[in-house]
Amino acid sequence: MKESFFESTPVYKKYMLLRILERGRETTQRDIAKELNISVAMANFYVDMLEEEGFLKRNYSSKKTVFYDVTSKGIDYRKNLSIDFLKSSLEVYNIAKLEIVPEIYNIQKKGYKNILMYGAGEVCELLLYVMSTDSKVEINVLALIDDDESKVGKVIGNKPIISPNDIKNYNYDGILISSYRHFSNIYKRIKEMNISKDKIINFFEEF
Prior knowledge:
Blueprint: H1 10-23, H2 29-36, H3 40-52, E1 56-60, E2 66-70, H4 72-109, E3 114-118, H5 122-132, E4 140-145, E5 155-156, E6 159-162, E7 174-177, H6 183-192, E8 200-201
Parallel strand pairs: 3-4, 3-7, 4-6, 7-8
Antiparallel strand pairs: 1-2, 5-6
Helix pairs in contact: 1-4, 2-3
């Protein structure tokens, strides 16, 4: 199960609920529950809370149809939460960067210059960003590999996403597994392609 630093907190749910309601007043509590991954009863709880705080108003067009209008106070509150959320995200990123950078330097010291990254998801995006913003990193990422065919042909940070079948077309020093959740499956897949173990770059755990 994917976890987040923010999505479990009440403040985050209030922030996301206001964003959802600002998109359209015909949003139902079932829609809210689905997007926030909570029960309809819990969605109703948060709607009640925001209404009591003056951040939204219910407008009934009939006994069965209700519209949710975000008030100007609610818009200002959501904007302030956006800034707070950005600050918190930046703090988490800076902490993560302190842990990531030494690992990247270590990979570089081992002689890896031209690499492929296997797993074109959020971890991959973070690693690419950290490497691109640190002048001491001289590792060249040639391409990103992913098993999801819908991603193949797309680009992340100007790096093309390729299928595992395209690995043979690249002259690389190593393949960095850039996924935490799918680490074991990716490692197994690389081994099945008879790629030497010394070309597999471990970032998360011991083999």
